[in-house]
Specification:
By secondary structure, the protein is mainly α. It is built from eleven helices and two strands.
């Protein structure tokens, strides 16, 4: 059997059956709480958004401390690094959400409900992709090469868009998912609160809310393709991969209302994301090569965390300097 087709050893995971069950139960409880909060449409104040953001940033911190005490420093560090990767990628996710909400002219009072549907859809898609990724890793170490290639291609695409000045805006009416939905059912001219289906002229019709939710689901697929291989570059434990994705996504609804103005000022964000994805792609390839030729070095997790933090700090600083120059 060739080296590239080496069968991978079973992945060691800290996720026991009861831990998976407890984590999923907590996740569902948090989603139910979020849906309860958004049940009555209202405009989100900055104070409310900051409060929920602090809560959802405190949760992964406490979870990381629990991992440290229960399983040691290595899983905790993998979780924190993976969370940093996912949170940085989610900033780009938020920017696309912002463009879609603007393109569909979503009323301010129902925006958080749209975001919540998008987050719930993203969680389901990440779970599917994580299961597929874990199966690939079980099939052979060549999966690391596949993940590395995916990240390289994503990095090139993001960097080309950043260098060309493409802000990611698109004609939503041309999205395949939107066109298909409009062919299947009529769509009302206006929003009807948080309702996605109404009865009009004796027949069922979709509201624009349903159309924008489908558009967000379609973009969730694209982001899952990038984010799941990225966090597998940090850890191959499916439980840690799932929890990093879950914690990074849960707070997006509130974080959107805190960062929606700041996101437009991070003009170099995509440059940084491209660098992070390319770096993790190199890490994956080196990890594969190390399993075949032990002399090939691996990138340790502390170094990965340091690189991610430095890149995010650098793009924040350069974006601030670029904004200052443009205002002169």
């Amino acid at each position: 059997m060739s080296a590239s087709l080496t069968i991978a050893a079973p992945v060691a995971s800290i996720g026991s059956g009861w831990l998976w069950a407890a984590s999923i139960a907590v996740l569902l409880a948090l989603l139910v709480a979020d849906f309860a909060v958004t049940r009555r449409p209202h405009e989100v104040s900055l104070r409310e958004a900051v409060g929920w953001s602090v809560f959802y940033l405190a949760l992964p911190l406490l979870f990381g401390l629990w991992l440290w005490s229960a399983f040691g420093g290595a899983p905790a560090l993998d979780f924190v690094t993976g969370f940093m990767v996912e949170k940085s990628l989610s900033a780009d996710n938020l920017f696309v959400f912002m463009l879609l909400l603007s393109a569909f002219a979503v009323p301010t009072e129902v925006q958080q409900r749209v975001l919540l549907y998008g987050i719930a859809g993203a969680l389901v898609l990440r779970a599917v992709f994580i299961a597929a990724g874990a199966a690939l890793l079980q099939a052979g170490t060549w999966a690391f090469l596949v993940f590395g290639l995916v990240l390289f291609l994503s990095a090139i695409k993001i960097l080309r868009q950043a260098l060309s000045g493409d802000d990611g805006e698109q004609d939503t009416s041309r999205m395949r998912s939107v066109r298909l939905l409009r062919k299947l059912m009529p769509v009302t001219e206006d929003y009807r609160g948080t309702r996605m289906v109404v009865r009009e002229n004796g027949r069922r019709a979709l509201t624009p809310l349903a159309v924008v939710v489908v558009a967000i689901f379609a973009t969730d697929v694209v982001f899952a393709v990038d984010s799941v291989p990225a966090v597998f570059g940090i850890t191959d434990d499916p439980y840690l991969v799932f929890t990093t994705n879950a914690f990074a996504l849960l707070g997006l609804r509130a974080l959107y209302f805190v960062l929606r103005s700041a996101l437009t000022k991070l003009v170099h964000l995509n440059h940084g994301l491209a660098i992070i994805l390319a770096f993790i792609g190199v890490k994956l390839v080196l990890h594969w090569a190390h399993g075949i030729w032990p002399a090939v070095p691996e990138v340790p997790t502390p170094l990965s965390l340091a690189v991610i933090v430095l890149v995010l700090a650098a793009v924040t600083l350069t974006s601030w300097l670029a904004r200052r120059r443009s205002l002169r």
